[in-house]
Design a protein that fits this description.
single chain; mainly alpha; 69% helix; STAT; STAT_N_sf; STAT_TF_prot_interaction; Signal transducer and activator of transcription 5B; SH2 domain
Amino acid sequence: MMAVWIQAQQLQGDALHQMQSLYGQHFPIEVRHYLSQWIESQLWDAIDLENPQEEFKAKRLLDSLIQELQNKAEHQVGEDGFLLKIKLGHYANQLKVILCFISV
């Protein structure tokens, strides 16, 4: 089976614009791109959004995503990697703020 993100990269026209509109400031498309394998390997459906007791699992998953993003940022090298390191680090910090906000 082809990975979801690989399929998404083949979209064109209106389908591509619709997919792009799903990503914004709260979940940048770069995060989706660079963490695609990790994201697709997680058990997102195992969290019952209607059950408040599942909140801890959701926060732990978000914390893991932040850690993966920080690891990805730290391992960027070279001229192209410099800007990517800054961007991914920035996104990790943004997600940390969200995690702190929802932990209150």
